[in-house]
Sequence to fold (101 residues):
Amino acid sequence: DKEKYKLFWNGQKTAKNGVGIFVREPLAQEVLDIKRISSRLMWIKLRVEKQTLIIFSAYAPQTDESEEMKNDFWTAFSDTISTIPKSETILIGGDLNGHIG
Fold:
């Protein structure tokens, strides 16, 4: 029996950048909200039993990208995380391109 997954994603058809989150069915039916911030940042809100999880997919700019691009990404990331209630668990996945050591 093959398992089925649902892809929640945000990106461009040019295949430059883009983020996504795969959720196994039937857990995908428990997605409460989706926020697509940019082609580098998105999250889904998911109910797992009695807990609410916020799952981020993040793709930070490479270290050789412009300071403006890096600052825009980290500002959006910080601003978004600050809106999430402390009662909700945050999981962060993705490629932070060496910015977090």
Q: What stands out?
A: The radius of gyration is 14 Å.
